[in-house]
Amino acid sequence: MYRPNRPLTTGTVLIASLISLLIIGVEVTAESGEDPHRPACTNPRCQKIKSFVKAHYCGESPYGNGPDDGCLILRPKRPGAGVSVRADFDCEWSESKQATQCQQHGQPSPALRSIIIRELRRLGLPARDENQTYFTVWEATSAGWHLAEGYHYRAAGPSLTLCQVILVIDRSSHVRVLRKVAFQKTDADVPAVTTWSPVDLADVDGDGQLDVILEGNAYENHWLEVDSVRDLSPKTIFSGLGYYL
């Protein structure tokens, strides 16, 4: 039920010079210490979180074109202990159809589905496109909340249409938005949008509370982020590692 990296494109055919410019731009930013997805991590708490994330969600290191302490992102087959998967989906590239195909596994409860769709509508998702929405629902049974994702994806020729929201929903149906992508159309080969994939729920800093681990995907740039949801007040406590191509 756990999905691999979710491809955004219907192919990656680029002019060589454009690829070079993109890669150079990322490398210069990283070397200058201004990479917004990999800020400096120097205090003891950040270093502890980084060590946990690298030990549990990193493979080959370094990987791709950097950073030096980056890595190939690895996903567990299932979320950690104390987490029940209620709904999930996976997307894979189909050579025969020359398109990304997504498959839903399980469904959110009617109440959770209603909340997710409501939040997607706030981001501009038209009612006619709701049937092309895919859902993730992980229940943190001991913590008393759900991690929920709604992901609308539709490819048409050289373009694709996206809309996404990732939420924390407690037992009283209070909602906290972790990540959102407004309904938009973008280029299928070079999407100018950042999307997110849930990776795991785990206690990354040893405080006894589950945290949310996400993968950020900005075209050829991939990194890991950790959100603390203590008292249902989400806060990003780590961003870094990963790779770019």
- Helix content class: 10-25%
Biggest sheet: strand arrangement: 2-1-3-4-5-6
How far from one another are the termini? 28 Å
Structural class: alpha+beta
Number of DSSP helical runs: 3
Strand content: 35-45%
SSE pattern, N- to C-terminal:
HHEEHEEEEEEEE
Query: How many distinct domains?
Result: 1
Alpha-carbon Rg, integer: 18 Å
Largest sheet: 6 strands, antiparallel
Q: How would you sum up the global shape?
A: globular
List the uncertain runs. 1-5, 7-32
According to DSSP, the number of beta strands is 10
Could you report the average pLDDT, rounded to the nearest whole number?
86
Can you describe what's shown?
The chain is 18% helix and 40% strand. It is α+β, with helices and mostly antiparallel strands. It has one domain (16-244). The strands form 2 sheets. A 6-stranded antiparallel β-sheet has the order 2-1-3-4-5-6, with helices on one face. The chain has a 4-stranded antiparallel β-sheet with strand order 7-8-9-10, covered by helices on one side. The longest helix has 16 residues, at 16-31. Mean pLDDT is 86; it is low at 1-5 and 7-32.
Quick structural gist:
This protein is of the alpha+beta class.
